[in-house]
Design goal:
By secondary structure, the chain is of the alpha/beta class. It contains twelve helices and eleven strands.
């Protein structure tokens, strides 16, 4: 009898210990979710977040609210999710290459969290194309070789536009300079708008630019496409060769974004968020809307996304250190 009472008491204690976590997990989501954007409202990441939030909310049965937490090259928003938000899946970070793979090297003394330890990958979310473009009134020629030759002839090298240090636009150009041994000089702006305006105005001669931003200026003839940054040619510009095809072997740069949550979030919750995202972006109208904006949606397993973050971190660490790139 005593033994039976002891076992019953032990099971009661165990059940009481496990019940809160199990119940919380079973009820996910138990309320509205936050989709944290570590950049200001009105930008590309914010546009993407606000495009996918309704569909994710519908799939999860709860509202998904976009919350902008900009500052410090995306570190403020990322730190909030990594260190302050509960590990219950109700707070999701939509980060990008800079957030996940660049800041750890660029701001190694300032970043107060560890991407690998403090954030749990959910899914890769999107990729977008970049092109090397020139202002034809500033940089003659129509090939990568022409750009390298023009840089060699310029007394101080060719100036290129960078929205800010550590962006895909900036690091793609620095990788190009390294691989081609080209004399390229960064002119840094406070955002993409001013950078593009000076490129159009001829104050700078070239830039790596995302497909959506470049499109109207290419169609108007104000900018010239030189090469696609990715592994394959861009469907919209089938006659524009890739950087690799143009002689810069192994060159491949594309923008990317993905979803993470605080480390320790239960695996079933992570799977539920990933499934909700996949369902949201499967809608044909949303897929077309995002494609027209230059965003190609994608999905992955958490393991695949973790491996991608790690590989990109190593790659950009090498570029940052080889080119001696320092934060502003």
């Amino acid at each position: 009898m005593h033994k039976r009472h002891f076992i019953a008491a032990a099971l009661a204690v165990l059940t009481a210990t496990l019940a809160p976590a199990a119940v919380a997990q079973a009820r996910f989501p138990s309320g509205p979710l936050k989709l944290v954007v570590p950049y200001p409202a009105g930008g590309g990441t914010d546009f993407f977040a606000r495009s996918i939030a309704p569909g994710m909310g519908e799939a999860l049965g709860q509202q998904v609210i976009v919350e902008n937490r900009p500052g410090a090259s995306g570190m403020i928003g990322a730190q909030f999710v990594a260190k302050q938000a509960p590990a219950d899946g109700h707070t999701i970070l939509l980060g990008d290459m800079t957030t996940y793979a660049v800041n750890a090297t660029m701001f190694e003394k300032q970043q107060q969290y560890d991407i690998q330890k403090d954030l749990a990958p959910v899914t890769m979310a999107a990729k977008f194309d970049f092109l090397l473009v020139t202002n034809p009134n500033v940089v003659p020629g129509a090939s990568v070789a022409d750009v390298v030759a023009a840089a060699a002839k310029s007394p101080n090298g060719l100036s290129y536009a960078s929205p800010s240090i550590g962006t895909t636009h900036h690091l793609a150009m620095e990788m190009f300079a390294r691989e081609a041994n080209a004399r390229l000089v960064a002119i840094t702006y406070k955002g993409g708008g001013p950078a593009v305006q000076d490129l159009l105005g001829g104050q700078v001669g070239l830039m790596f630019l995302d497909r959506a931003t470049a499109k109207p200026h290419l169609e108007a003839g104000k900018l010239r496409p030189i090469a696609a940054g990715g592994v394959t040619r861009i469907a919209l510009y089938p006659n524009v060769p890739t950087m690799a095809e143009s002689g810069i072997k192994g060159f491949s740069v594309e923008g990317w974004q993905g979803l993470t949550v605080r480390a320790g979030t239960p695996e079933p919750v992570i799977k539920a968020i990933a499934a909700a995202y996949a369902k949201a972006v499967s809608a044909p109208d949303l897929k077309k809307k995002l494609s027209d904006a230059g965003i190609d949606t994608t999905t992955s397993t958490p393991e695949q996304f973790a491996a991608h973050i790690q590989a990109e971190t190593v790659r950009w660490r090498n570029v940052i250190r080889d080119r001696n790139i320092k934060p502003e």
